[in-house]
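fwd from M.: "can u put these together and see what the complex looks like"

so here's what she sent:
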Amino acid sequence: MSEQTFTTVGTRPIRHDGVDKVTGRANYGADISLPRMLHGVVLRSPHAHARILSIDTTRARSMPGVKAVVTGRDIPLVQAKLAMGEAALDLRDMGDNLLAHDKALYHGHAVAAVAATSLDVADQAARQIVVTYEVLRPVLSIEQATARNAPILHEGLKTIGRPTIETKGPTNIAGKLELKLGDVERGFTEADVVIEREFRTPTVHQGYIEPHACVAQTGEDGRATVWTTTQGPFVVRDACAGILGMDAARIKVIPTEIGGGFGGKIPVYLEPLAIVLSRKAQRPVKLVMSREDDFRASGPTSATVIRMKLGAKRDGTLTAASTSLWYEAGAYKGSPFGAGAMCVLACYRIPNFFIESYDVVVNKPKVAAYRAPGSPMAAFAIESVMDELAETLAVDPIAIRLKNAVVEGDRAPYGPSYGPIGLKQVLVAAAAHPHWKAPLADSQGRGVACGFWFNAGMSSSATVTLNADGSASLVTGNPDIGGTRVAQAMMVAEELGIEVDRVRPCVGDTDSAGFTDVTGGSRVCYATGAAVIQAARDVKDQLRARAAKIWDVQPDAVGWNNGCALPPGAAADRQPLSLTELAPQMAKTGGPIVGRAAVNLPMAGPGFAIHICDLEVDRGTGKSKVVRYTALQDVGRAVHPGFVEGQMQGGAAQGIGWALNEEYIFDENGVMENAGFLDYRMPVTSDLPMIDTVIVEVANPLHPYGVRGVGEVPIVPPLAAVANAMHAVTGVRFTRLPLSPPRVLEGLVAAG
Amino acid sequence: MAIVYLPHALNAYTGGRSEVAIDAPRVLELRAALERRFPGIQAELEQMAVAIDGQIHHDADYERVEQRTEVHFVPRVAGGA
């Protein structure tokens, strides 16, 4: 499959949506505006943990210009789950997160919402809502949540344990997963070196540039239309329908352009509220989160505590691992603790291991997916310890990884054997890269780390319509975050033998596209791409049939090559008919040509990466700067290498921010103290060097072109790559992120 | 017969057995056969993804299970959504 030859795939055409985006014509969530539209404001809890005793909306409702006020009573708590491919959304928890019913479970938890004729009036009305709270002690860490006599967030919460575990009384531990292989104790006995460390990562946010925003319009017939910035219009539709008890056919969701999501724009935070407000007011309602709202009340990713013990023989061969992973879920169950358990040892062959992972509720916003959810924190732990192992044994850190790297046929820690994978290939490429041997200044150090992610499959649909002039339209249901429109158009162009510019790719709404799972899980180019290719091949088959009709031969006898139908032997005197010759004859030969496909694919097969980071550290201030960075990754097949490189660079940049500066800082009452980009420090262009990329292509047999998925793996290695570089330059093994100047300085002072 | 690998996480049902051979045409029947052998396990298995010869399916009920197929039950990848 690697030897496939392509005309369009592998080239770098300009994205179809590029001009609209750089000229400001593209419409994002907050750009939508309708006649008679009202503006909504959400009132949020000032307490991280409090029982709601009463809510009095009388004064707010009587204010001029106020058209609707809603509280938790307007959002039913339905006991149902919404299947979503890899995950299931708990609609009861989601409904309670939309508007708190009995308890406010984090600072910023929505308790009421107002729609009024202006934002100012809505804001003033929200301030007139009187909420009486019984303030409770907040739970703000794994230690606090699991302490004896800890305050309990949910009285009815029971630990779902695999294996089943006995829980005595109320708990904040929502889930536990164990994975095991071999005899761990014996494995450690066989080891010449054993390293054990505890690692901590803070709550961090995806930091997408566009906050959540939507407009809902509900008609007299109860039908609703929602414009929203989302990774999954069908998830929004089905979540709104499930929570509000509406038929899915009564809701149409129109995805706007999206300014980043990274997993954070899969849950609904505003859309059901906007529908309910619009239904009450009988006018369109717009809700937009501020950046502060977004930090406080959308889903960041888990803070973690991870204990890691690793044993190896003197020659570097790993013999045993034992690890305990604790993930904060925020206010409701559902952290990526399972994924973390499955990822943590996935890069290496370890004959004996024990992994336990926990899902713990705390009084912080409910976590959402964030790019390879659960994997970066786990990689921080294992890759830091691998680095220490290499140092202890005085072996090259890439060589020790190569010695233990998984290859095709090895079993993943979660059970099945790996198919074709590219970890060894990326390690070999890293060892051969000029960066690895480049000289460093005295104040600089170099670190490496590997990363793993599954890459999802799930359901996708695609429709390709041929136009009479030989151009084509493509409709799919995935909002375009990372250049997927152009990648899909390239697939149609490749199949039909036309130029990419002659394909118009469109992100459809829930009425015009077939059901498609979210833009997430690194799945769009793989799963939706497979549907697109299948739909384009459907068009080709129909074109062959039209040529057969013209030539009066059997369709099966007609071949296709290079954009042309080829005559069979029985019509050898005929000239091949090109797509541009056949397209104008559609009406005469049977009517419009519309290709369609719908697929539900297995997971794509894992992606692996290794990153090399050079860090310069000022020992006087603790400030550090990434001076050189190289990301190497197996992507299966790079359809549009420019956007593949963009994903690798973007993931690396986010991971570097996570490593160096980003963290939610809470006071003792659970109030986030840095809910803005001035104080929540994400890297900006001037902070980073140009991130070099090396694309490795080990074709994925589950995709017609070998696509594997690219978007998530690159955020996995940077946490440890940066920390390992920090160790290389300072000699201090930092186990707690972020490596902000005060923490580094503290570490340097402590080390003397 | 398919070779079914039973995860450590389901020890409560399997008594620590890690591997069984099951004759079933599809995953649906395979799960039912496991339920007959390890009562109570089916409800757990229905919440897990199924790896068939290394390919992980989330909706595997009607997938064929051939002779000597390796079947693993795998926790679903859920990520805080």
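replying to her w this: Residues 32-136+209-260+265-297 of chain A form a domain with the Aldehyde Oxidoreductase; domain 3 fold (CATH 3.90.1170.50).
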